[in-house]
Automatic annotation (TrEMBL):
Name of the protein in question: GDSL esterase/lipase
UniProt KW Membrane keyword: no
Family matches, as InterPro entries: GDSL (IPR001087), GDSL_lipolytic_enzyme (IPR050592), SGNH_hydro_sf (IPR036514), SGNH_plant_lipase-like (IPR035669)
Region forming the signal peptide: 1-23
Domain of life: Eukaryota
Keywords: Signal
Length: 350
């Protein structure tokens, strides 16, 4: 009798131990652009696609999924580190259902931005629309888990936002007579930060509490931008990097402000800038051979449909390259950045 009781006690302690080791976070919920799109664009009419070879050639099964990389993206690694699934499925992918999305889902869309005018450029999913999909997700989650359990998932999930690069490189600096004729670069940053603020407030209003707002990478160092910088020996475009740092400063201030204003929120600014720049400046110390051109095709300008299987120049081993296509990191870079973000930024949630 005593023995039985003792082993029950041991078992219950063991179960408590398991639940503390296992994820405090029940789900990873993702909004953003191609940095975190796991295939939503495969299901909308746009040319911003990557669901063909050689994209995904190092993904499980060598399968292109719509991720803009040779393998997994940062959010896949983050999900795994949280004790959840090793990949985060796209909400529009009919191969997945609410039972999958209940632990991880991406509403992101490649080529989108904070600004509606950015998503218009390639007819992708606007940022505001991602929140509409999220509302639909909440309804489905309540049907699947029941009201109580769903509310618990909604408030304890980690929400990750990664967006903004396209507002500058695909829109502001690329569309003549567009936003650049309306706003100075500094005004445009304020405009975008305002959209970020209202998005976070709405997400909070819908029940989110643990939110990571992502900063911009050193976008002047993407091979595509370097290619245009011939006059300076294809160095990083310094002015773009400065804009990224300025904008990150604004997001950092926004995060501090909202943490004071919104009761119970845990909002974290997740800055990939310095770790990414460190990789680009010291590729060899991470095992990379090449940082200024990408693996796919000539590595100078190709992405999306221009990065395809017919290209003879594509590199053999993407692990030697920081960039997979002219705009997106390789799986290996994604993993290094994700590890850094998990250890240095998201640790309060783990
Ligand atoms: C973007 O478009 C949506 C839908 O038309 C609209 O509700 C929203 O206010 C727009 N955002 C901005 C910042 O203009």
């Amino acid at each position: 009798m005593g023995n039985k009781y003792g082993s029950w006690l041991l078992l219950s302690q063991f179960l408590v131990l398991i639940t503390t080791i296992q994820a405090k976070i029940p789900a990873l919920i993702v909004f953003g652009d191609s940095s975190v799109d796991s295939g939503n664009n495969d299901y909308i009419p746009t040319v911003a696609r990557s669901n063909f070879e050689p994209y995904g050639r190092d993904f499980q099964g060598g399968r292109p999924t719509g991720r803009f990389s040779n393998g997994r993206i940062a959010t896949d690694f983050i999900s795994e580190a949280l004790g959840l699934k090793p990949t985060v499925p796209a909400y529009l992918d009919p191969a997945y259902g609410i039972s999958d999305f209940a632990v991880g889902v991406s509403f992101a869309s490649a080529a989108t931005g904070y600004d509606n005018a950015t998503s218009d450029v390639l007819s992708v999913i606007p940022f505001w629309k991602q929140l509409e999909y999220y509302k639909d997700y909440q309804r489905r989650l309540k049907g699947y888990l029941g009201e109580n359990k769903a509310s618990q998932t909604i408030s304890e999930a980690l929400y990750l936002i990664s967006i903004g690069t396209n507002d500058f490189v695909e829109n502001y600096y690329a569309v003549p007579g567009g936003r650049s004729s309306e706003y100075s670069i500094s005004q445009y940053q304020i405009f975008l930060a305002g959209i970020a603020e209202s998005f976070v407030r709405k997400l909070y209003g819908l029940g989110a509490r643990k939110i990571s707002l992502g900063g911009l990478p050193p976008m002047g160092c993407m091979p595509l931008e370097r290619t245009t910088n011939m006059m300076n020996g294809n160095e990083c475009v310094e002015s773009y990097n400065i804009v990224a740092m300025d904008f990150n400063g604004k997001l950092y201030n926004l995060v501090n402000k909202l943490n004071k204003e919104l009761p119970g929120v845990q909002l974290i600014f997740s800055n990939p800038y310095y770790v990414f720049l460190h990789i680009i400046r010291n590729p060899a110390s991470y095992g990379f051979d090449e940082t200024s051109v990408a693996c796919c095709a000539t590595g100078m300008f190709e992405m999306g449909y221009a990065c395809n299987r017919n290209n003879l120049f594509t590199c053999a081993n993407a692990d030697k390259y920081v960039f997979w296509d002219s705009f997106h990191p390789t799986q290996k870079t994604n993993q290094i950045i994700a590890n850094y973000i998990v250890k240095r930024v998201l640790y309060p949630f783990i």
